[in-house]
Amino acid sequence: MQTEAEAFLQRIRAYPDDDAPRLIYADWLEEQGAVGNPEWGPERAYLIRVQIALARLHDEVEPDEPNATPSARAERERARTKLHGRLLVAERDLLDSHREDWTIPFRGLATGLEFRRGFVEEVKVSVLQWIRHAHELFVAGPVRHVALLDLDRNLPLAFQCPYLNRLAALTVYASHKGQPLARAVADSPHLAGLKRLYLGRNRFEDNSAEHLATSTNLANLEELDLTDNELGETGARALAASSHLGNVRYLELRNNRLGPTGAEAVAGSERLTSLHRLGLAGNEIGVARLHTISRAHDLLRVPILDLSNNNLNAAGLHVILTRASPMNESGVVRLQELDLGQNDQLGNEGARVLAGCPHLAGLRVLRLRGCQIGDDGARALAESQYLNHLTTLDLAFNPLGDTGCRPFLKTQLRSLRHLIVPNGVTQGLRRHLEMRNLRPRE
Prior knowledge:
By secondary structure, the chain is of the alpha/beta class.
């Protein structure tokens, strides 16, 4: 006979992305009180509510209030930060006290159990366990993200399992299976509902990218992570030309070998119409060939762009920001966040290129960690007439001190409220910056 609790849980499993059944269950748990079952009681109800609040806070879009004063914005952010901190403490305390009881149904089935919105949603499971016990895993909880381990000779069977269709996210990390893994993923009919796919460090070469790019089964992907593989320009062009990856908003290609042409192809793709964040760190973009490509400015079409650790210098940055540009075309410049960290050849000249670029007028976040920017470069950024919408500027691990940061006390960058400064800045100047609502931190 189905228990009352099981009826609630069955609905949560049937609608795993809906918060309403979870909150209804939380109300019921609280009504039951502590009756000897570790799955019941107000503590579990509280965890559900706390984690749903955290998820909503994470997904909340900051309102655009152009007329808000810096102090009003700072106060709103302080309140948000305080609430977030209280929720994290409550979450930690609840899980420290009750994790062992609340994970009993998963014993012997999976490891790496992570709670999301009050339930175990993320697990690590060996392929053998996955093949044999997938049904039990989904009875135990509304699992949404599985990391498959130890593929070995069970690779084909793993991707024939129909329970894959219950997942929103799948991770296969460091299997080193290369093309056979890419083909198995691309050919699996059970991944049609998948939203997030993480395939880092699997020795994928260009032909693996081609398998993924031509798969009709991956048409609902919103995030694709191919970090630490061996993709080159050909693989990048395959992804850029895909007619099935149009829903991908987050594409992470960190530590491949795309080069400037591959990077430009992905950023300028007419097929990747939903692309919002593009990770291109460690892709050899700052090589001499960057100066020969005609559409380097296509990189500015992506709202959130990571170009860290690419051996970029000031001249290469100038090419990306200004080269031969139909910049007045609608939609060409959409850049809002730019990470140039660990490009230690940028220096003061690179900072001046950024400060003097009118195409960065919409930039909100600029990360320049470890770029060898000194006092003169920091001063140029503080005095820029174009970075007026900048809210966060990260200058950590640069050789600058009070002389370079003092101009931020009188900066015209009225939106700036997070100035991340290096250790060389004195506590006295830090206090003065904080009085200007810049909230300096390392």
